[in-house]
């Protein structure tokens, strides 16, 4: 059999097949290759041929859809098709529930079953999970939150379409209707699942019949160049194992490559010249700094046309333009070093800087009035819990950022076990670490892990205790929950939890008139600056501030390596926000609804 090899660690056979470089930008990660276990050590073992055929079919289907995506060749999405996909998902939900209910042992443990995509689908025979999910989907519908519905169901819609070999344009109103139909279907199916819990006989219906339809090309396909483009070369370079590129660097490079493609098309290294880079920069400089959600699918040319003659709209700053060009220059240098680009071709991105203009002093951190405006928001004063605020995270994450000075992701990934009583002092301590395993994110991570710093333990700040933080922890412990904020999910390829909260928080403070005034102000990250400013005013020693913020002191002497540093965390007791009034903040009380088990 082709594409079959033996795993050197497990001696099991695996199906491994590399995706074409030119198609990788149109394949969801991991997009360098398809790797599937054949679950056997011999080629003639039972089930190997079936699993091989499934893997080969999945590869062919993925490549076919990627080719169509590269040419923007989409299938029409009409009402019968939407109804078919929604019904197919209802049957899938009920079928999985039926399997879990009648499989021995499924009432006390997760039961794994392979779906048509080869992924493991997990079903848990409890009313809690179904009730919780159903309530969330009903809330999205009640609020007519189409953005939240699309965020919740876009991946499911794409998976169901791919099973039929379909590719839909996600920027169309019809695709929003599809996500809405799946959300409605999930509510109806959940109601049936709950009725089954009472003994009602509600069989799973037969799979729906696929509606007759013909594919339709909505846009003319692009011609694929014979020579590899700079983007394909750079993408393959980033996928090389020896590069070890961080997720943050990779995301920045992919964004710069996307802008290059939108500005100049699929350009080859030989066609890239300094004049072409200038054209790209001129077009990129017309892009708004903040693109509304409805226009995020628009290209650079479309955005330039949409926002022409609108001087009031802030554009990308020179610093941002330089960052994108710098990322492309680095990729070119790496590709030339690897031999993927001829050495005689000059680097067109090198030494390109944009005019900076008059520098303005950047406002860092929040003023006392701005913090006071945050604390006057309804989530703190009236117990409001917006649907997209991820439950109790909407209350605790801003408060923890305010009084700990931690990085947003450090707080978002915390576990209940990271809050524990110290046996010596009998005080409740908070640990920021990368040693735990989050049920959604996996291994915890710290920005400073490579520098062997950032792990710290300190007493839970007194203002958090006064507001009921320890009651919150006890409430989570009573439910067996692992994550401190169990409703947070992964939003992007960087495997971060905080973006699922941070995007909502920014919109929420703006809607309530609490958004900080000034360009580039961040409603989350600048809590850290505010904490540091207050720490100086509270006369915290410098080494204590460095420890509490997870910093490694610059130009440190050998003395920094001696002695135990955990005692530095006790200095957090001195931290104060002089003049801050928290009297309007309502003390936390347990919500009446159940929490997700994570």
UniProtKB/TrEMBL annotation:
Keywords: DNA recombination
Gene3D superfamilies the record matches: Intergrase catalytic core
Top-level division of the source organism's lineage: Bacteria
Family matches, as InterPro entries: DNA_brk_join_enz, Integrase-like_cat_sf
Name recorded for this polypeptide: Tyr recombinase domain-containing protein
């Amino acid at each position: 059999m082709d594409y079959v090899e033996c795993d050197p660690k497990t001696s099991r056979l695996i199906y491994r097949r590399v995706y074409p470089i030119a198609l990788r930008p149109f394949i969801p990660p991991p997009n360098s290759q398809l790797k599937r276990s054949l679950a056997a050590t011999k080629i003639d073992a039972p089930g190997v041929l079936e699993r091989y055929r499934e893997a080969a079919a999945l590869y062919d289907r993925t490549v076919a859809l990627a080719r169509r995506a590269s040419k923007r060749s989409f299938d029409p999405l009409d009402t019968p098709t939407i109804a078919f996909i929604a019904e197919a998902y209802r049957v899938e939900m009920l079928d999985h529930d039926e399997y879990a209910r009648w499989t021995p042992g499924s009432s006390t443990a997760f039961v794994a079953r392979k779906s048509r995509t080869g992924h493991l689908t997990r079903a848990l025979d409890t009313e809690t999970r179904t009730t919780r999910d159903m309530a969330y989907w009903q809330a999205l519908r009640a609020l007519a939150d189409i953005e939240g519905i699309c965020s919740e169901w876009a991946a499911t819609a794409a998976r169901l379409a791919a099973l039929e070999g379909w590719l839909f344009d996600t920027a169309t109103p019809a695709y929003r209707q599809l996500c809405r139909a799946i959300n409605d279907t999930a509510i109806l199916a959940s109601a049936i699942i709950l009725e089954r819990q009472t003994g009602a006989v509600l069989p799973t219906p037969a799979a729906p019949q696929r509606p007759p339809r013909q594919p339709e090309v909505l846009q003319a396909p692009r011609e694929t160049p014979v020579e590899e483009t700079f983007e394909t070369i750079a993408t393959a370079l980033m996928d090389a194992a020896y590069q070890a590129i961080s997720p943050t660097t990779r995301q920045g490079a992919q964004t710069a490559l996307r802008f290059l493609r939108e500005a100049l098309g699929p350009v080859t290294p030989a066609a890239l010249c300094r004049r072409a880079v200038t054209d790209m920069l001129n077009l990129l400089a017309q892009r708004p700094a903040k693109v509304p959600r409805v226009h995020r699918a628009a290209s650079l040319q479309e955005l330039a046309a949409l926002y022409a003659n609108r001087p009031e709209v802030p554009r990308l700053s020179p610093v941002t333009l330089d960052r994108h060009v710098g990322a492309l220059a680095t990729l070119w240098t790496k590709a030339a070093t690897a031999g993927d680009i001829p050495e005689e071709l000059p680097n067109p991105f090198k030494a390109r800087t944009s005019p900076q203009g008059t520098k303005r002093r950047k406002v860092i951190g929040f003023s006392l009035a701005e913090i006071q405006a945050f604390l006057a928001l309804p989530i703190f004063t009236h117990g409001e819990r917006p649907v997209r605020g991820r439950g109790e995270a909407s209350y605790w994450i801003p408060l923890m950022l305010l009084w700990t000075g931690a990085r947003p992701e450090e707080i978002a990934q915390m576990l209940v076990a990271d809050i524990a009583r110290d046996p010596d002092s009998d005080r409740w301590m908070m640990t920021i670490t990368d040693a735990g395993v989050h049920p959604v994110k996996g291994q915890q991570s710290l920005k400073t892990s490579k520098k062997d710093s950032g792990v710290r333990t300190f007493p839970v700040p007194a203002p958090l205790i006064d507001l009921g933080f320890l009651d919150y922890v006890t409430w989570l412990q009573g439910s067996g929950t692992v994550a401190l904020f169990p409703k947070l999910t992964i939003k992007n390829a960087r495997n971060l939890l905080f973006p699922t909260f941070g995007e909502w928080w920014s919109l929420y403070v703006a809607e309530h008139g609490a958004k900080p005034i000034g360009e580039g102000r961040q409603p989350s990250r600048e809590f850290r600056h505010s904490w540091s400013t207050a720490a100086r005013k509270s006369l915290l020693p410098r080494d204590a501030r460095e420890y509490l913020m997870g910093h490694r002191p610059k130009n440190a002497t050998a003395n920094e390596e001696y002695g135990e540093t955990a005692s530095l965390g006790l200095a957090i007791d001195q931290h104060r926000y002089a003049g801050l009034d928290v009297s309007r903040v309502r003390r936390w009380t347990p919500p009446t609804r159940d929490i997700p088990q994570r």
